[in-house]
């Protein structure tokens, strides 16, 4: 037993020091792209729009004035075009150009229904009679007032099993003008390899002086072990806001699954009867007489 116990302790130490292999990170996501033919177009004209690098599913395309600086306020969202992107991520969609609510410079904006993926391209549009966008009374100033991550996996996380990560985000508009549906993007992954796209909620309108709270659910469908980070970016014109929150999951339950059988085996070996010195000597004399 004196030789087995140090060996068992060393094995436990080795299991605790050895990290459990995490699944390989996904390849970097393709940058979504949108393109229109060269030239000047008119309101009501149908234009072929090419999308590449998009996730499969529904896509919405809006014509925006004012360079889309105020988000949905500058875009003809009520007359947006919709289409389906195949699994290949590349598609050509016919889009009838609607009149933007404000004057140009104009652009064509493509986005998924949740706004997780979006891209824009400049659009030379003639015949726009809408007035210029009003000059904002002040500069929007967005402040992150709260940020907290909670692992919802519970006991499943002790074994590195899948489970959602909940992130509570509190935003405060300290400026004197409303912030309307700013672009919001989220990425999740291991430190230094934060590449996985996470569906970001629509932020809606954050009024001047208003504080709003959001809950973001990060699905972790694969086994997650060790430290992971969620990076967020809110693209305000000239004042982007970025944040990062990390979470760690250590599968101590897996070490327990190794340690319990090992300790049971050591206990069995310890209980095994061993011959006494007198029995060993008696056996030796009997053998010599024979």
Helix/strand layout:
Elements: H1 4-17, E1 33-35, E2 40-42, E3 46-52, E4 57-64, E5 81-85, E6 91-96, E7 106-111, E8 118-126, E9 142-151, E10 165-173, E11 179-180, E12 184-190, E13 193-198, E14 205-206, E15 211-218, E16 226-234, E17 241-249, H2 252-271, H3 277-289
Parallel strand pairs: 2-8
Antiparallel strand pairs: 1-3, 3-6, 4-5, 4-7, 7-8, 9-10, 10-15, 11-14, 12-13, 12-16, 16-17
Signal peptide: 1-21
Keywords: Membrane, Signal, Transmembrane, Transmembrane helix
Protein name: Neocarzinostatin family protein
The CATH class label of the largest domain is: Mainly Beta
Number of distinct helices: 3
Described by the principal axes of the CA atoms, the overall outline is elongated
H/E series: HEEEEEEEEEEEEEEEEEHH
Specify the biggest β-sheet.
Answer: 5 strands, mixed
The overall pLDDT, averaged over residues, is 78
Class computed from helices, strands and strand pairing: alpha+beta
CATH topology of the largest domain: Immunoglobulin-like
Keywords: Membrane, Signal, Transmembrane, Transmembrane helix
Protein name: Neocarzinostatin family protein
Transmembrane segments: 252-269
Signal peptide: 1-21
What does this structure look like?
There is one protein chain. It is elongated and about 100 Å long. Residues 1-29 have low confidence and may be disordered. It has helices at 4-17, 252-271, 277-289; strands at 33-35, 40-42, 46-52, 57-64, 81-85, 91-96, 106-111, 118-126, 142-151, 165-173, 179-180, 184-190, 193-198, 205-206, 211-218, 226-234, 241-249. It has 290 residues and is α+β, with helices and mostly antiparallel strands. The relative contact order is 0.15. The strands form 5 sheets. It has a 5-stranded mixed sheet, with no helix packed on it. The chain has a 4-stranded antiparallel sheet with strand order 13-12-16-17, with no helix packed on it. It folds into 2 domains: 33-126, Immunoglobulin-like; 142-252, Immunoglobulin-like. This is Neocarzinostatin family protein. Keywords: Membrane, Signal, Transmembrane, Transmembrane helix. The chain crosses the membrane at residues 252-269. Residues 1-21 form the signal peptide.
């Amino acid at each position: 037993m004196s030789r087995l116990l140090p060996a068992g302790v060393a094995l436990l130490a080795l299991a605790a020091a050895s990290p459990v292999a995490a699944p390989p990170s996904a390849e970097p996501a393709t940058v979504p792209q949108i393109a229109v033919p060269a030239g000047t177009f008119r309101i009501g004209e149908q234009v072929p729009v090419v999308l590449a690098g998009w996730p499969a599913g529904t896509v919405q395309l809006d014509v925006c004035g004012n360079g889309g600086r105020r988000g949905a306020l500058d875009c003809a969202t009520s007359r947006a075009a919709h289409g389906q992107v195949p699994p290949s991520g590349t598609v050509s969609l016919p889009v009838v150009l609607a009149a933007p609510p404000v004057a140009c410079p104009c652009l064509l904006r493509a986005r998924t229904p949740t706004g997780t993926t979006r891209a824009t391209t400049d659009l030379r549009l003639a015949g726009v009679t809408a007035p210029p966008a009003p000059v904002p009374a002040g500069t929007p100033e967005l402040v992150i007032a709260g940020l907290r991550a909670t692992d919802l996996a519970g006991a499943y996380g002790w074994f590195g099993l899948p489970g959602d990560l909940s992130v509570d985000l509190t935003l405060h508009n300290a400026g004197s003008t409303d912030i309307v549906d700013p672009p919001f993007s989220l990425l999740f992954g291991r430190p230094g390899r934060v590449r996985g796209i996470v569906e970001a909620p629509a932020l809606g309108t954050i009024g001047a002086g208003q504080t709003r709270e959001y809950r973001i659910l990060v699905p972790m469908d694969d086994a997650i072990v060790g430290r992971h980070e969620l990076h967020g970016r809110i693209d305000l014109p000239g004042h982007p806001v970025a944040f990062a929150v990390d979470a760690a999951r250590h599968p101590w339950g897996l070490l327990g699954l190794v340690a319990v059988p090992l300790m049971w085996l050591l206990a069995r070996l310890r209980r095994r009867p061993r011959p006494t010195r007198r029995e060993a000597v008696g056996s030796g004399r009997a053998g010599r007489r024979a």
